[in-house]
Design a protein that fits this description.
Helix content: 40-55%
Shape: globular
CATH class of the largest domain: Alpha Beta
Distance between the termini: 47 Å
CATH topology of the largest domain: Rossmann fold
Number of domains: 2
Length: 219
Amino acid sequence: MKILITDDHAVVRQGYAGLLISVLPDSVSILETDSGERAVALYRSEKPDLVIMDINLPGISGIEAVRRICSWDSAAAVLMFSMYDEIPVLEQAMEAGAKGYITKSCDPEVLIAAVKKVSSGQRFIQSDLLMGMAFNKNVPGERFSNMTQREFEIFVNLARGLSTECIANQMCLSSKTVANYSSQLKSKLQVSNTAELVHLAIQNGLIKIGQFQVDRETI
C-alpha cells in the first residue's frame, strides 16, 4: 500500500510514517510532502492508495487540495488529520471529498483504524466528532451551515489575512470573483469588515491568533 502524507512539519510527517510502517504490513511505502499543491501533483503522478492530509498548509489549504484531488479522481481515499475539531470544518472537508476525518489529539489506535477503514473504501469519522454532528452540539457552527465549500475556503483565507489577488491565484479564480464572494460572505455572516471576519474565525476555532498574516499585496 502506498500512502501520501501531507503536513507542513517534517517531524510530524516522520512521526506518522514511523507509526504506520511499524503497524501496517511490510509492503507499505510512504510518500511525504509539505504543501497542498505538491500533494495534488504527487497524487496525479504516483496515484497513492491513501492520502493523509492536514488542513492548515502553506499555499492552498488541505480542503482545497482534497477538492482538486477528488475532482480528478472521485474514488480517491483521503483521510483528513487536523488540529481542528470544529464541526463546520469537518463538514467542509467531507463535502470536498474526504472519506475520513480525525484530529491530531486522537490516540494512535484511532489513526490506525482510520487508515485501515479509509484505504479499504469505507468512511471513518472520529467518534466524538461523529457524536457532535449527530447532536448538533457546535451551535456557533450553525452560522456556516449554509456556506458552499468554495465560500468556506475563501472565508478562511480572508480570515488568515490573504489578499483578494492571492486567494484568486491559489484557487484559480478571478480577483473579481473572489471580491464578489467576499461581499456575499460579509452579508451572509452579518459582519461589516475583514476584522470582524477574523474575529469570527478565531471565535469558532477555524484559525489561531498567530495564523493571521498581513499580505504585502494589501499594504
